[in-house]
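G., the chain you wanted modeled:
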Amino acid sequence: MNQVNDGMTAVNEASFGELRSGNLGVRIAADPSEIDAVQALRYRVFYQEMGARADPATIASQRDRDVYDAVADHLLVVDHTLGEGPASVVGTYRLIRRGAAQRIGRFYSADEYDIARIEANPGSILELGRSCVDSRYRNRSVMQLLWRGIAAYVFQNGIDLMFGCASLPGTDPDALALELTYLYYHHLAPSDIRPRALPHRYIEMRRLQRDEVNARAALTQLPPLIKGYLRLGGFVGDGAVIDAQFNTTDVAVVVQTDLVTDKYYRHYERQARETQD
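Predicted structure as tokens:
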């Protein structure tokens, strides 16, 4: 795997290789053992820490896994001070492109949302999901590294639209009334790319009157991941969904990648010029 140790630089045209920031790096999983490490990390975070409900097979394996893992690309944050390969995995994001979803027959998000308008997009689309970071590494620099990895992946693969389900903690939508109402009134996706929660799972997001929403307070209470999407100009779909298994309330997120690719392109070109100088 090609690497660059000073700064964060994409290293080849076909794949972004590894981007480095000190002892940390971000790259795509290279083999099944690293995907197993991802599944173990997800189990620790989702089930042991966040209270997701595990079935007997999940408890026995101590892995969070499903059929999508076999067709996805798995973005890794690795800490090289912990070793190499599986031992170094401290963060992850699951990336599913259209072709991969077609091998399964559907995107993961389709279990919660009608995404027909997204799938009708003629460009290249990417579903993001299963994001988690080891508790010792939950800081701004690691989140920025994950986003740089996504930006590199989007840039290299010509992705036009990203989407997925993002989670708020807990399954009581009234306890999340401020956040859900804020997202609906301030960040609702344009109609032509707007997912809508499936009728049997639809939870109304407008739980307060618009003039009751304190935007600053709402932003403070939103999970960092959702705020990251919003900083990229992201939108939310119509309707929240309760995910009882994972003890969360989900919202659909859609991001047109213009801002992502433009930002990464400027970074990529700047690093290329510095290399040539």
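Residues 47 and 53 are 7 Å apart (CA to CA).

Shout if anything looks off.
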